[in-house]
Amino acid sequence: QLQLQESGPGLVKPSETLSLTCIVSGGSISVSSFYGAWVRQPPGKGLEWIGDIYYTGTTYNNPSLKSRVTMSVDTSKNQFSLRMTSVTAADTAIYYCARTSRGPVTKGRFDPWGQGTLVTVSS
Amino acid sequence: DIQMTQSPSSVFASVGDRVTITCRASQDIGNWLVWYQQKPGNAPKLLISTASTLQSGVPSRFSGSGSGTDFTLTISSLQPEDCATYHCQQTDNFPRTFGQGTKVEIK
């Protein structure tokens, strides 16, 4: 059974860079059906898609986050990562990683999800 | 971007009640709509995909319907364990977008 787990600092200073990693177990990310995704949720608010990454390194980002987001993948460690630069208090949120896909039926859905990690932006 | 609008934002109902949540897309998305259930402190869990396909293990009291721009999630007989926030999401286009969520509580 595929499982995902986020890891990274829980506190980031304003203007600095947020870095998170999603470790995948129970299956390989180097399969044609696997895309990794990042979704965030500010406390008490709704969900926002950040972006998807394929194991080849191809990425799809949310234009609302412009060029602040970079995603990467490490197939040797079966994990993928998120970097977000120039963070502000508005980036305080629970960050989730999830599997998504481009399949004819499964496209775009997120399943399963990691448990999420709270990142607070504060000095 | 495709805007997803859920209503109501919260609902209070009694055990055994029928609960209906609506999700409206700002443009035609066919049946590319999924529903998640999120319990407090937990990650969202996929409930329904392609508007009406129940995921394995999800109780049959949950059902989804709709196509185009208007969609519905129905709980036929509300149970205490159904207290959660429900989110819709369109999977038709990028960027992926979600509704603002509907919180379901027991009276």
Largest sheet of chain A: 6 strands, mixed
Shape of chain A: globular
Residue-averaged pLDDT of chain B: 97
Fraction of residues in β-strands of chain A: over 45%
Structural class of chain B: mainly beta
Number of helices of chain B: 0
**Helical run tally of chain A:** 0
Structure description:
- The complex is a heterodimer of chains A (123) and B (107).
- Chain A has no helices and 10 strands.
- By secondary structure, chain A is mostly beta strands.
- In chain A, β5 (48-54) and β6 (59-61) form a beta hairpin.
- Chain A is globular, with a radius of gyration of 14 Å.
- The termini of chain A are far apart.
- Chain B is 0% helix and 50% strand.
- Chain B has 107 residues and is mainly beta.
- In chain B, strands 2, 4, 5, 6, 9, 10 and 11 form a 7-stranded mixed beta sheet that branches. A 4-stranded antiparallel beta sheet of chain B has the order 1-3-8-7, with no helix packed on it.
